[in-house]
Amino acid sequence: MKHISILLSILCCISLLPAQTPEQMFKAAGSPVNPKVSVVWNRYYDHAGIAEICKKIAAAHPDLAKLESIGKSFQGRDLWCLTITDFKKGDAKRKPGMYIDGNIHSNEIQGAEFAMYTAWYLTESFADTKFIQELLADKVFYIIPTINPDGRDSYIHQPNSPNSPRSGLIPVDNDGDGLVNEDQYTDLDGDGNITLMRRKSPNGRFKIDPKDPRNMIQVGPDEKGDYELLGQEGMDKDGDGRVSEDGYAFEYDPNRDWGWGWQPNYIQNGAYKYPFSLPENRAVMEFVMKHPNIAAAQSFHNAGGMILRGPGGQEDVNTYNAADLQVYDAIGKKGEELLPGYKYLVVYKDLYSAYGGELDWFYAGRGIYTYSNELWTPYLMFMKDATRDPFDNSTYSFDRYLLFQDAFVPWKEFNHPQFGKIEIGGFKKNYTRAHPGFLLESDAHRNMAFSVYHCYSTPKLEVQEISKKELGDGLIEITAVIANERMMPTHSSQDLKNKIERPDYITLATSGKIIAGLQVENRDLNITKEQKNNPQTIEVPNIPGMGAVTVKWIVEGKADAKYTVSVDSKKGGTAEGAGSR
Amino acid sequence: MRKILSLLLGLLCCMAAIAQDYSPFTAQTERLQSLARMYPSLVTLKSLTKTQGGKDIWLLTIGTGNTASKPALAVVGGVEGNHLLGTELAIGFAENLLKGSGTDSIKNKLAKTTFYVFPNMSPDAMEQYFSKLKYERMGNATETDDDRDGRSGEDGFDDLDGNGKITLMRVESPIGEYKLHPDDPRVLIKADATKGEKGKYLLLSEGIDNDKDGSLNEDGEGGIAFNRNLTYKHNTFAPGAGDFPAGEKETRALLDFLFDAFNVYALVSFGSNNNLSAPVPYNPLLARERILAGYLEPDAKVNTIVSELYNKITAGKDAPRTSAAGGDLLSWGYFHYTRYSFSTPGWWVPKAKPDTAKKEKAFTVEDPVANYLRWAQQQGITNTFTEWKTIQHPDYPNQKVEVGGVDPFVLINPPYKMVVDIVKKHTDFLVKLSDLQPEIDLINLKTEKLSNGFTRVSVDLINKGGLSTHSKLGERSYFLKKLKVAVKTEKQELVGGRKITLLNSLDAAASQSFSWLIKGNGKISIEAGCPTAGTKTIDINL
Hints:
The structure holds two protein chains of two kinds.
Chain A: H1 2-16, H2 47-60, E1 65-72, E2 78-84, E3 97-102, H3 110-125, H4 130-138, E4 140-144, H5 149-157, E5 196-200, E6 206-208, E7 216-218, E8 227-232, H6 279-290, E9 294-302, E10 306-309, H7 322-338, E11 343-346, H8 347-351, H9 358-365, E12 369-375, H10 379-382, H11 394-401, E13 408-416, E14 420-427, H12 437-456, E15 461-472, E16 475-484, H13 493-498, E17 504-509, E18 513-522, E19 527-530, E20 537-540, E21 547-556, E22 563-569, E23 573-579
Parallel strand pairs in A: 3-4, 3-9, 9-12, 10-11
Antiparallel strand pairs in A: 1-2, 2-4, 5-8, 5-14, 6-7, 10-12, 13-14, 15-16, 16-21, 17-20, 17-22, 18-19, 18-21, 22-23
Helix pairs in contact in A: 2-3, 3-12, 7-12
Chain B: H1 2-17, H2 25-38, E1 43-50, E2 56-62, E3 72-76, H3 84-99, H4 104-112, E4 114-118, H5 123-126, E5 168-172, E6 178-180, E7 188-190, E8 201-205, H6 249-260, E9 264-270, H7 297-314, H8 329-336, E10 340-344, H9 368-379, E11 385-391, E12 401-406, H10 419-435, E13 440-451, E14 454-463, E15 483-488, E16 493-496, E17 500-503, E18 511-519, E19 523-530, E20 534-541
Parallel strand pairs in B: 3-4, 3-9, 9-10
Antiparallel strand pairs in B: 1-2, 2-4, 5-8, 5-12, 6-7, 11-12, 13-14, 14-18, 15-17, 15-19, 16-18, 19-20
Helix pairs in contact in B: 1-2, 2-3, 3-10, 7-10
């Protein structure tokens, strides 16, 4: 255990030493040619490894990256968050924010590398990419590679299958017998992978696949089989007649623990005690509540190649109105273009109803446009549609011809205390859901590009026009137009409906006396609405995407005085403009 | 020293017994601490957390031995900040129970049952009763922006008549929906437009539209109300509910404790919701909804039985009907905690009969305030009504505005002298309810020698209690332990029968038979039970 982490840090140090001199390198388009922080992107990192990389990014780019721990996991690991922005331009806290996390499910590990790649790419490309410079001047990224570090390390360092554990590590009594974790998976052959158990049997319903002898397929209804499958490596340790029924593989689901539409575990399997009853999610919630500038969010899962949006529960269908769907669809469709093999889908409709999910809280609870990407799709193996179905041999072929059978534990005989003579074998835990090494960087890059597009679409406000008109008797009318140059409004429809975030403030600063303030509903026909209280700061409920709002003031003052108009929006950021003759 | 201390304690206790009014938080704490000192072998007092306002959320555990291993009844008071009686009932129950702890019946009770008493879940809000400005506050000290305009607490109540109480304000207005009560002109009731009645007054809470946003008193001290902050049908974003369920420290402290208290079989809380005077009826449609909205049939039956018990003991009549508003403890206790959950306000204003000597007649329009005023007069209660008085109001410069009305708190909290009797009845109820608790036993043990060293062991598992070991809904929750029957062998071999059987539940008075085939001699044991119904072990020598 310790040895591994020492080994890892040695490896990291080695990779830091430049193997080539800058003169020897030639830039490939769109990738940093000689990054300050050198990271190998065709492998995975445990929590300590992630911490190490994050620290290096923050140290190498002090004006672009800051690292903080937003809280601790159940077992006391730090939840590391990188804030990425151009700290020299503007106040980071007032820029529209893009939140990114990964690995909420323990075994869905590549989200952490994808998130970290995003931080790495933005910081390393900043110097020579104008688009990134402008992006980081306007926006801020909050990147938490893993919001479930206990589960991550458990997946990596403990015996597991590709599907375990999904849960975090708070011990739970799955079978309700009063004992906790008394019957976990058993790594019978001690190879660190929980694979399958099969046994020769005259009454078995499985046979060896003639196309690949490693694969087991079900026989037809009228066909005789010669093997039975006994499930995943394990035994009945507590003598209750069930195998591995109380382990940590699936206990609670961290993605059923969020504060919108939450339901208890008898309705929503995997729910824990109440929303944010898991310390990791609580820390994220507190972080989000402290950062009302977050306007967009992305969480990385695996697998299946999906760009998911809410709602998770059918009950919330009406939460998503047409204006919001337009934004969601535009970004989601762009995602399908950027991510070959990925489909833009809706959770409740295209997957299943899930209550208390993270994306539901981000959108419905906070008004933040949010996607969950299910990373990795079998499509990426041969760039054509494929499945994990045992009758579809792509998974085996890909392993055979591109991974050279590195992803499979060959069947081997084993003497089982309860099942007798059996064989153990199957895919390793790092295959079928996690990306194979050589595809990791390219898919990370594509998903990063999707996040960048998402972030780019958050509001960008501008004081577009300030005009003056003399009304006589020493009165001046000041009209200001505030435009939003991006697709997202400052308030999503859910936000508007529930007043989640306060209105946007448009303030006139002048030496004159402000007599009245009005929102202009139709400038041409002069339809207005007066705001009686505190007229110098007009509160507008929303500034629409690719649109504008108009306000005006009646001021007792001089026409040639200076009039400064500023806008202050929690999710939309700030802007200022001055008008004087 | 110790003697003096206990003397002093006794004195304090007497003082508490003759208290003339409800206890403020410091006095509540003293009463609890004195119980912990007087009954150290029966009581532990623990602070679960401190509220945003810095007040302890107390848990008083009453029982003997290993209290966590015995079936438990949870009792919760202060569910709503304006309900002082609820806290009084919870503390009073503990005091009464412990006072009787010398008797055999209570001694036996405490040998079998644990009581978890949470006296006050709304200590921040409840202090408003004792402060300079009295109003029925529900929210804790968490800062909230109730009208969600970006500013907090900018438009609270204003004591316009300077009497230290927030009452009502009536404004003469042609668009008003209220009119004077025909039998008592102090009271305003809604005009019934369908009967051609016209209103004459706007009826508002006492205050000024301080932020001139057109809404009155919409964003005062606010805070989050405990009984709106729980997870079942939480009214997310509504004032007092919070931006998500269980956001408050006191809410989480209670939930964290209870979810880990696998031994709790029922939860009784004191608050405005009432399923004890009248049980929640079984509604098959609601009970089948995906997001469960009605009691399952067996659980509705239990509610009926317990409600009958309650009415028999407390003899209360004419309780106002209630329906849970969401985010509340009563609903959480059943729908999310999946235990039997009961709630009662403990008291309500009785229906006042007209005093014929004063030529009073039955009310032509039923109204709780009119009824209260009549009842209060008969009881000799004075000074709980502020006569309407005209004031100048900045929001209605050209209209007649009067301030007055019935005092806050009096409609739901009885005069303190009535509390002793109410507490006594509710103590009786809680004790009788705990008599029904599920209890596991193993009976009819038989050992049949089938041949040398080969024995069939059979036994019946029964539930001697009046309640099922699990609510029907609880069978589906993983925050309840299964009923486990396990046979423990040493060197013997179990040839037939299961070593461990997990049952979802065992109904009241139900039984189930078990048998095992065992090869070998010597000692074996059979253990059966679950935290909500206790554990029974029998040793057998083969």
